[in-house]
Amino acid sequence: MNTRFRELDAGKIIDTIAALESRVGERFPESGLRQLCVTLLAIGRDASARAVAIAEPNWPLRALVGLLITAILAIVVSAVTTLHLSARFSDFGTFAQAVDAGVNDIVLLSIGIFFLVGIERRVKRRRVLRALHELRSLAHIADMHQLTKDPESIVDRRSGPVERPMTRFELARYLDYVTELLSLVSKIAALYVQRFDDEVALGAVNEIESLTSGLSRKIWQKITLLDSALPRVT
Asked: If you average pLDDT over every residue of the chain, what do you get?
């Protein structure tokens, strides 16, 4: 099956980040935003390799878990076959106690096996959540870079911008680049759950997408203010 339009292409995402870094470098070569793009590019390359590794089965871990489960079952079978049980029970109370003890042992054994079977998923989930935390922090850092970019510094020069004055076009470009970077952050996050079906990890990715979308909306409010306040000048 052709998956070209069914899955995110990590290589295309990395190429897009590289193109964004180049564009930012042309207009704002000394800016922190460019360094942030460079950081995102490195994270994107790492994420591509991590996502592939997470999607692949961890055969050594699976083999170890299989051996542990086999050993547990072997011990249980051995204990049952060597245990000398009375052919009959003296009363119903004794029978009930024996059944209760057997049920408890089966439940505990099932819980232990379930825990062992889920080890691989938990290990992968921990790796994904650690990577997503890094992306979440990067999104907040990107937002910090645009906080001081106030459209009023263009509309009303008397407000006095903190950094060197930007033209209306430069400020609009800068804010637009930040929204693109935020969008790419969410795309990198989506790579981790593209082939890893885990409810917790998927929820964390959705949180990052909501975060980046919310931050982008605030930035677009500034861009809209620029568009409505002054005619576009290039």
From this structure: 81
